[in-house]
Amino acid sequence: MKKVTLVMLALTAVMQLPAQEQGRTLSLEEALEMTLSDNPAIRAAEFNRRAAQQERRAAIGLRMPQIGITGSYAYLGKDIEIDLNNMKAPVQNLAGQILQSGMIPSDYIPSISQMLSGAMAASWALPLQDRSLGFVGGDVTVPLWMGGKINAANRAARINEQTARSQGIQQRNALVSELVERYYGLALARQVVVVRQQVVDGVRKHLEDAAALEAQGMISRSEKLYVEFKMSEAERDLQNAQSQVETIAAALNSTIGQTDNYQPVTAMFILERIEPLDHFRTLAAERNPLLDQVDQKRRLAYEGVRAQRSSFLPQVVAMGGMSFYDYQVSKVLPRWAVGVGVNFKLFDGLNREYKYSAAKQTVRRVEALQDKAGNDISVLVEKLYNQMENYRTQMASIEASLAFAEEYLKTKNAAFLEGMSSSTDLIDAELNLAKVKTERIEAAYRYDVSLAQLLEAAGISDEFTAYMRRQDARRITFEK
Known about the structure:
This protein is an alpha+beta fold and 480 residues long. It contains 13 helices and 10 strands. A hairpin with an 8-residue loop joins strand 8 and strand 9 (336-343). The two termini are 27 Å apart.
């Protein structure tokens, strides 16, 4: 009977898939380009950066003059006037004394008396402002000295802009790691399906052989039933693997911002050599965006102290105003005015003191968090680096086990066909080969994911494809 090897089954399994199931081929570089252009998180980070940029520009406006236009209309309870009617009696008495003193010629006295009578009959109220009035004018306020508050606000706005930029870099690096995990995860899941298909095809072949051997009386019925049991188990494992492919494919579509059935074509890899651990620790200390954000928070806390300190100092502003148009406004009032204002708070219930003390405590808290974050990142780098080295060293032992499992299966298959081995031994050999091949591609997958996470911690996620193209990068597939 013709012997069917696992390698032949692996090659034919992919070739026999319908084009719709194989999906559109997608390289890792193409997936990365899609992710960095179409992922919503990238767009959100860009909007956050632009918002911080506009906030920084808005802070610059605090130094500029504040110019406004105002208009108002009022209807007073009565006209504003100066009432001199109470002066009539004294004036009339004084005028009578002068007329009677003989100082004025008698010819003029009648005319003067007539004029005086007319004046006494009139109202001596002098109007200053009509009860109905309105005006339109402008005002200008220029901050001269705010105790350093404006400078602190501008520095804080620049720090927030830098923080938003670091958050964008952090999001970008995280997406690279996520893409590597899901892209190679889909490749791994598809390869597991192929391996599970190999097992199903192999067990089906054994089932056919077992049926023929049972008919010839060479094996017992229990051995055939065992093969049937393993057949149903292999088919169930295949269905689970296919479901896993669908789940990871949906996750990959979410990362790249597309909706399609993709077939990863970029192979997993393992590097024979990589930079020492201290190299990545140094990079992480210098370029990790999370550490940069913590440092920005420390600087922002210092600006908070300066802003609170400014409340202890006087505030000086220059101001001016002018009326452009008025309605029934007294001409006595000036059309423009300029001046300087000073505000210095003497006591506010110790509110400033407590806020200033709280700002200093915030600085100490952020400094403590900065030390912890630095230590955590250093530990993370060491952990990921050691994981990579473990997966790389495991590969050698896994490949030795793979060679043995393949040869062992060939031996058991030949012995079974000659009636020298039981179906149980053959199925176990088949499953053991599938297990070793799955462990091999899983080790490569874990290595690549750890590398992506290591580069993310070091702040150089964009260099993942450069590591992938290195000359010592060994491609790992389930065929070899």
